[in-house]
Amino acid sequence: MTLKTFSRSFGHGPRRALAIHCTLAHSGAWRGVAEALSDDLTLLAYDLPSHGKSGDWDGQGNVHDVATDMARALLTEPMDIIGHSFGATVGMRLAIESPELVRSLTMFEPVYFAAALIDDPDRVRAADRNSAAFNVAYESGDTMEAARIFNTGWGDGSGWEKTPEKLRQYMADRIHYVPASQPFLRDDSAGLLQPGMFERAIMPVLLMDGATSGDMAFAINESLAKRLPNVTCRTIAGAGHMAPLTHPVAVADEIRALLAET
C-alpha cells in the first residue's frame, strides 16, 4: 500500500538524518531534539501512517511494512536514523534490511517485544501489566479508555487527567494502531530474529533508555544490545519512555556524541 507521506525538516546542519516518532504522536514531536541538534543535523521527520498529516492506513496488510516502506522511500542517500519507541523499530528494521542506507542508528526504547519474549518471556509477562485491561477496553469499542490505559503505561507520566481533550481524542482515534502493530512487534512478522539478520546492522548504534522507565523497556534493550554488533548503550537520568519529548537536550547530547564518532 502506498500512502501520502507528510514530512517536515528541522535544522541546517551538514549531515542529513531521518527521525521516526512513536505511536500516537506525530513528526512535530522531534522539535526539541532537532533544535538542540540544529547545527549538527538537517533532520527530516515524517508522520507514520494514520498519524499527523500522512495518509490513513486502510487496515490491509501489515502496518509496520507500510511504515517502513514510507521511511525507506525518504532515504535518498545514506542517512543517520533516529527513532523513538515504534519509530525506533522502523529504524532498526531499515538498519537490518537496508544497511547501505543507514549511516548510524539511534533508538530510544524500541518496543520490539519479540526479542525479549525469546530471551526472558517470564520477565516480559511480569512487566506487561496493562495488556489485559487494554484488550478489554479496545475489544469493547471503548477507544478512549484504551488510549488512557496505553498512555498510562507508555506516556510521559503527567497523567491522563492533565492531557488536553483534543490530544486525548487524537490518541483515541488512532488507538487501533497499537493492536495492528503486534504482528511485527511481538511476532516478528519480518523475520528479523532469524539467524544472521541482526549481524547485518554493522553501523554504529546508540541504544537509549530512561532511568525511570519500566522493566519492559530494560528487558527489550538488553535483548537488542546483545544482538547488535556495534552498539553503545546510554541511560537518560530522570527520564522515562518519553524522554525525546521531556528531556530533548539530554537525548540530543548523546546523539551528538554518536555523530562525532561516526
UniProtKB/TrEMBL annotation:
Sequence ranges assigned to domain AB hydrolase-1 in this UniProt record: 20-253
UniProt cross-references to SUPFAM superfamilies, sorted A to Z: alpha/beta-Hydrolases
Entry's Gene Ontology cellular component terms: membrane
Domain of life according to the entry: Bacteria
Gene3D superfamilies: alpha/beta hydrolase (3.40.50.1820)
Any one Pfam family match given in the protein's UniProt record, by short name: Abhydrolase_6
GO-annotated molecular function: monoacylglycerol lipase activity
GO biological process: acylglycerol catabolic process
InterPro entries, per database record: AB_hydrolase_1 (IPR000073), AB_hydrolase_fold (IPR029058), AB_hydrolase_sf (IPR050266)
Protein name per the record: Pimeloyl-ACP methyl ester carboxylesterase
